[in-house]
Amino acid sequence: MWFEILPGAVIITTLLSVPIYAMYGLDKLMIGNAFRRNMDERFSRVMYQRDFRLTDNPYKMNGLEQIPDEEVKKEEKDPNEDSDDPAIVKKREKERKLREKQLKKEEKLREKQLKEEEKQKKN
């Protein structure tokens, strides 16, 4: 009868749905986020690249506050910087952050030295 097909239909439906639900866990393990962004259309790819460039995390919601003003962008831009290649831009941004961290460390060391000198003068 017609109901003899039900066990086979259930098995096939279950097996076809396993990859769909397994991707949730795999994406969570591989990229740290359970949901991928749709890259079917050009606009979606451009928005992915923009979010990655601005915050290094394309899955974080970004508003207008993440986009720097034009004036600030011109001031920060290095005259030797010709390339718009995302890899080069990201590398330069990391180098700039590293330099800032080093400057902060040097400043803290100077403050410690000044405090030690003041203590020695008082004693």
From TrEMBL:
Region (Disordered): 58-123
UniProt xrefs under InterPro entries: NADH_Ub_cplx-1_asu_su-1 (IPR017384)
Ranges that cross the membrane: 6-26
Pfam families xrefs: MWFE
Membrane topology: Single-pass membrane protein
The UniProt record lists the keyword Electron transport: yes
Keywords linked to the UniProt accession: Electron transport, Membrane, Mitochondrion, Mitochondrion inner membrane, Respiratory chain, Transmembrane, Transmembrane helix, Transport
GO cellular component, one term: respiratory chain complex I
Bias (Basic and acidic residues): 87-123
Biological process annotations from GO: mitochondrial electron transport, NADH to ubiquinone
Cell compartments where the protein resides: Mitochondrion inner membrane
Function noted in UniProt: Accessory subunit of the mitochondrial membrane respiratory chain NADH dehydrogenase (Complex I), that is believed not to be involved in catalysis. Complex I functions in the transfer of electrons from NADH to the respiratory chain. The immediate electron acceptor for the enzyme is believed to be ubiquinone.
Family: Belongs to the complex I NDUFA1 subunit family.
Protein name: NADH dehydrogenase [ubiquinone] 1 alpha subcomplex subunit 1
Native organism: Drosophila melanogaster (Fruit fly)
